[in-house]
Design brief:
The chain is of the alpha/beta class. The protein has helices spanning about 35-45, 65-70, 75-90, 105-110, 140-150, 165-185, 210-225, 240-245, 270-280, 295-300, 305-310; strands at about 1-10, 50-55, 95-100, 115-120, 155-160, 185-195, 230, 250-255, 285. Strand 3, helix 4 and strand 4 (about 115-120) form a beta-alpha-beta unit.
């Protein structure tokens, strides 16, 4: 069986304190979605179960973002995120928030209104592409992932392949993730994502990793990670998902019918029909929620979202087929 979720992508802001050499999402021309814009986007997601909140890390380090937040009645950005999470729940969608590096208390603040959360480890070693990105220091990202485990937050992480790391670094990064999960048991999936060059960035002329190279990493991940941790391969970033599924990947991430992949807009989402066809009839494609079935069954969710999970999940913890 191979899983996926239907989502709507909510890019709250492109302001970010980090300046990663490969990122095409961050901009010095800061935008901040208004609550009405968020509401409008959520309303378009008729078939989705997941509201994927993605944005730059700690955007309120910038004066203009703070002023915009103050005008909307917020003292900081995470207060705004929490309110938008709550709005999504009221509109029938389960939030999954990728907020960058957060403290224990910040994670605790967002937990009640999120079905799951995420932070890509990227690599557990320091790399040149992160020279101007304080939030990409491995120790601070690892601390965030560990704190999520202490809070029993179903968590998505992963590695970014092809950003200047060695093969040994990839192995080490996967071992770090495996160790964290063995301590806290909260890693619900590990994404193996290939670097995709963006025009106008310092790394625009870098060669992306081949599918063969990514396939090797998927095989390494399946060997290193605990058996209860699924591997996700983003289907819009590879030519054909089938070899990756054969190698051990079992999830295709979130697919949106109404929004692009704002991080990789040059790579459109495949349709559900295309995903089914790519499995060659050898694997069943099944829809999940942003919180994995295991954690639905364990009850790793708050009272604030329990009724919505009860409405959307079947007895196994997958998405109800009649939704």
């Amino acid at each position: 069986m191979v899983t996926f979720s239907r989502n709507v992508f909510i890019p709250l802001t492109n302001a970010c304190r980090n300046r990663c050499a490969y990122c095409g999402f961050r901009s010095d021309e800061h935008k901040l979605m208004t609550p009405n814009e968020v509401r409008s986007l959520l309303a378009k997601a008729k078939n989705a179960s997941e509201a994927l909140f993605t944005f730059g890390e700690k955007p309120d380090v910038y004066d203009d973002i703070r002023k915009k937040l103050k005008a909307m009645g917020y003292s900081n950005f995470l207060e705004y995120v929490r309110d938008m999470n709550e709005l999504a729940v009221k509109m029938g969608l389960l939030p999954h928030t990728n907020a960058g590096v957060l403290s224990y208390n910040e994670l605790k603040m967002l937990k009640p209104w999120n079905a799951s959360m995420g932070l890509m480890l990227e690599q557990a070693v320091e790399l040149e592409c992160h020279a101007f990105s304080p939030g990409k220091k491995p120790e601070v990202r690892i601390k965030t992932i560990r704190n999520a485990g202490k809070l029993q937050i179903p968590f998505t992480t992963g590695i970014l392949v092809g950003i200047g790391e060695r093969h040994y670094d990839r192995i080490y990064s996967l071992e770090v993730i495996a160790d964290i999960h063995e301590n806290y048991g909260h890693i619900q999936e590990v994404i193996i994502q290939g670097f995709s060059p963006k025009k106008g960035t310092p790394m625009e002329n870098w060669k992306p990793p081949s599918d063969e190279e990514l396939l090797r990493v998927v095989k390494d991940a399946r060997r290193i990670l605990p058996k209860d941790v699924p591997i996700q391969i983003p289907p819009n970033l590879v030519k054909d998902v089938y070899p990756f599924i054969k190698a051990g990947a079992r999830d295709l991430g979130g697919i949106s019918e109404v929004t692009p992949d704002y991080i990789n807009p040059e790579h459109p989402w495949p349709s559900i029909e295309e995903l089914k066809a790519s499995l060659r009839g050898e694997f069943m494609l099944r829809e999940r929620l942003p919180i994995y079935p295991k954690f639905v069954r364990l009850g790793w969710f708050s009272d604030e979202i329990s009724s919505l999970i009860g409405k959307l999940a079947d007895e196994e913890g997958f998405r109800c087929s009649n939704i």
